[in-house]
Amino acid sequence: MYEYPLIQATGFRNYGPADAREGVEVRLRLPNYRGMRLSLLDGVDVTIDGEFFSHEITMLRLHGEVYDLEAMRDATTVRWAMGDFGTVLVPKVGGLAPGIHNVKVAARTRSPYFPPHLQPLPVNGERLATIVLP
Amino acid sequence: MAGQFKYGVSLYSYTEDFGSIMTLEDGFDHIADTGATGIEILGETHVECYPEPSAEWLDKWFGLLDRHQLEPTNMCSWVDTKLRLGCQLTVAEGAAELERDLRLAHRLGFKSLRPKFGVIDAELTPDPIWSGAVERVLDLANKFDIVICPEIHSPTPIRHPAVDGYIDFIERTGTPNFRLLIDTGIFQNRPLKGWQHEVPEGDSDHAKLINGIAVDPEEFLDIAKYVAFIQAKFHYINDDLQCENIPWDKVIPVLKRAGYDGYLSSEYEGTREPWVAIDQVRRQHVLMRQLEAQYDAALADA
Questions:
Q1: Which residue intervals define the domain Xylose isomerase-like TIM barrel in the entry (chain B) (predicted)?
Q2: B125 CA: distance to closest CA in chain A (Å)
C-alpha cells in the first residue's frame, strides 16, 4: 500500500557507492488517479532544501528500469500502474547528510483530455523527509 | 409511475483513499453498505495488471460481486490521443484503445464503457478521430452487448457542438451501442470551496470549474432519449444534508419526468483528503433517495 502523500517517506535515501554518493532517490506513488503509460509523464522536477533539479536531469526508475526524459517520452508501452512505486533519481554528488530535509516534487503529467494549454500539468508534493544513512 | 432509478457508486469516489488506506475489498464493502446495486470502476485504476488481469484477480472480482450482490455498471477508460508528445493517434490506434477496453469490460461483466477521448482545443472539442475509431468497434460492442458512452462533463454543457456531434453519430449509424453519459457536475450552480489551487491561475476555465457552468436541468429533457448512464457527481453535502453545489431538488424531478430509469452512480469529487468520501457518498444516497421518494409520493397524490 502507498503512504498517502505523493512523496513517500520510505525510499528517501542516498544512492551510489558508500564513500562516493552519486545522488538521492525519492520514492513516489503514482502521480495520477489512474494508471498511465509512462510517455504521459514528462519528467519530474525536484527541489531539495531549496536546490532545484530540473526534469531534464532527473531520471525515473520503474520496475527496475531507469528512464531519462527522452526514454520516458518514448515509453508508450510501459505502464505505471496504481500501486507501483516510481523512484526519482536526483543527481546530487555526495548525496545528503542523515537528517530531515525539505523535499518538493512536481511530476509533469499529461492528460490528453485536458485542454492543450494545460499540458503538462504538474502534480505537486512537498514534505519533510528523513535520510537515515549517509 | 415514472421509472425508478437504480443506485450505484463509482470507486472513483474513493480516489483519495484507494491504494493507501483502502483496498478493493474495502471499496466493495463501503459501496454495498449504501444499499447500492451497482459498482462503477476506472479500468486503469482498479483492475490489477490492467488490461490483462490474472485469473486469480478475476476470481476475486467475481467473488466480491457475488458476496456483496453488486452488478458491474460502467467501466471508465481513456483514448489517449496524445500518447506521444507532439503527435496524435490514428483512427486505427484509437480503435485499438477502444477494443482493448471493450474486451476487458466484457470480461468483467460491464454493459457500459465510458471512453474519455483526448481533446484538441480549449473548448474541449474531442479529437476528430473519435467517430472513425468508434465506428470500427461498433460490431464488437454489439457482440458484447456493451454501450459506449462518451461523457458530457463540465465545462462542456448540453447545448454544445461536441454533444451535437455525438447525437448526429447515433442518428447516422442507427447504432444501439453508442449513447451519452451525463456527469451531473454540469448542473453545479454554486462555487466549490477550497478548490482554487486545483486550477492554474489565470486559466480561462478557472471560473467555470470553480463556480460551475449551471446548465439548466430542464435541458436534460432535450437529450434524455440519448442518455444511457448518469454519473452523480457531487462535491460536498453538509451536516444538514444539503448539497452545497448541485441543485438536486431541481435535477431529480427532471430525471423522473424524463422517465430515466438507469443508474445514478455516485461520483464524489470533493476535498482532496482521505477518510472523507466514505460518509459523503452515504449522505448523497440519502439525499437522492429522499428526493425520488418525494417525487413519487407527489405523483401518487396527484
A1: 28-272
A2: 9
User: Cβ of B18 and A1 within 8 Å?
Assistant: no
Long-range contacts of B289-297 (CB under 8 A, 24+ apart): B289/B7, B291/B248, B291/B249, B291/B252, B291/B253, B292/B4, B292/B5, B292/B252, B292/B256, B295/B2, B295/B252, B295/B253, B295/B256, B296/B1, B296/B2, B296/B256
Q: Please report the ipTM that was assigned to this predicted complex.
A: 0.96
Query: For residue B90, what are the contacts with CB-CB under 8 A and spacing of at least 6?
Result: B129
Is B153 among the catalytic positions? Answer: yes
- Residue contact A34–B117, C-beta within 8 A: no
- pLDDT digit string (tens) for chain B, length 302 residues: 468 999 999 999 999 999 999 999 999 999 999 999 999 999 999 999 999 999 999 999 999 999 999 999 999 999 999 999 989 999 999 999 999 999 999 999 999 999 999 999 988 899 999 999 999 999 999 999 999 999 999 999 999 999 999 999 999 999 999 999 999 999 999 999 877 556 665 566 667 778 899 999 999 999 999 999 999 999 999 999 999 999 999 999 999 999 999 999 999 999 999 999 999 999 999 999 999 999 999 999 98
Mutate: best of B75, B82, B100, partner A, most A CBs <10 A: B82
Any alpha helices (H) in chain B, and if so which ranges?
Answer: 24-32, 43-46, 55-68, 91-108, 129-144, 161-173, 206-211, 220-223, 248-257, 277-301
d(CA B69, CA B90): 41
Q: Is B20 close to A3, i.e. CB distance below 8 A?
A: yes
B-facing residues of A in 51-110 (CB < 8 A) are: 73, 76, 79, 81-83, 110
Chain B contacts of A86, Cβ < 8 Å? none
How far is it, in rounded angstroms, from Cα B45 to Cα A107? Answer: 18
CB contact under 8 A, B78 and A40: no
Within an 8 Å CB–CB cutoff, is residue A3 touching chain B? yes
pTM of the complete model beyond 0.90: yes
